[in-house]
């Protein structure tokens, strides 16, 4: 089974459009890469793995197209749209993880810290 056939099968079996499959695949690759390489989403490596995957995908798509049709501007426009669509959420995750990490992790409660700051430690009975 060739790559193009696998993509057609995924589209038919899930009922999702190819654009949606691009988005879900990108998120999947980014999260799995972060887990496998033990890096946070703030690290560039998971984002880079998504970029490599999307470029391989577009290369395989482009190589499937007959040479006479490959010169058509519509195929290039479609490839650019696929790359843009696929990289958007991973790029947003990377930016949020670097610029506003508390949006992903939550901020510590300042009232919980203030409540325990002035209390003496409880001693355990012997």
Tell me about this structure.
- Helix content is 75%, strand content 0%.
- The chain is elongated.
- The protein has one domain.
- It is mostly helical and 126 residues long.
Largest sheet: none
Q: How many distinct helices?
A: 7
List low-confidence stretches.
110-116
Taken as a percent bin, the fraction of beta residues is: under 5%
Order of helices and strands: HHHHHHH
Helix content: over 70%
Number of strands: 0
Termini separation: 71 Å
Please tell me how large the radius of gyration is: 23 Å
Question: Overall pLDDT, averaged?
Answer: 83
Number of domains: 1
Structural class: mainly alpha
- Characterize the overall form: elongated
Please tag this protein with its features:
elongated; single chain; 126 residues; mainly alpha
Short description:
This protein is mostly helical and 126 residues long. The chain is 75% helix and 0% strand. α2 crosses α3, α2 packs across α5 (73-99) and α3 (44-64) runs antiparallel to α5 (73-99).
Layout: helices, strands, pairs:
Blueprint: H1 3-14, H2 18-36, H3 44-64, H4 67-70, H5 73-99, H6 102-105, H7 110-117
